Amino acid sequence: MAKNKTKKIITVIGARPQFIKVAPVSKEIAKHSNLQEIIVHTGQHYGSGMLKVFFEDLEIPEPDYNLDIGSASHAVQTDEIMKRLEEVLIKEKPDLVLIYGDTNSTLAGALTATKLHIPFAHVEAGLRSFNMKMPEEVNRIVADRLSSLLFAPTRIAVENLNKEGTSEGVYNTGDVMYDVALYSSSMAKESEKRKAVS
User: What is the pTM of this model?
Assistant: First the structure.
């Protein structure tokens, strides 16, 4: 009997909130021996101090790729991410791309994966401000429209997607930020216990 082939997941993150959100998801992925996660940091938000705080304190694996995009206008930033991310996706040939939230990194990940015919999953799908003047709202809607799997944080987010005609591949998975809060609370309690003993 043939062994299950390892599935490769490329996680695209680039902004501070995404660094936090990826922590519980990466921990779950790591529990499965048949899954390999490759983290791509677009560099949309940057700084060595920031990487230390988020990646070390939340025990997030160090990124396998840093695209070093830096600051720019929405169009330029999205374009640069797409160009550099395309090279990574062609090289790594992932089975799935994982994107988070509503940033330029999110939009670039969605568009690049779609153009290369790679399925992708959107964490925090279905969130809406109903204000199309917000760049983030445009990013959310485009990502959700193109996504193969939509991981909605709330029942209302699921309803938003259904109202837009999207019901296939939609899952109410709960809020990853709540998962981070629970994990951080647990870590703080353990730290206090260690201090009390020492």
Answer: 0.87
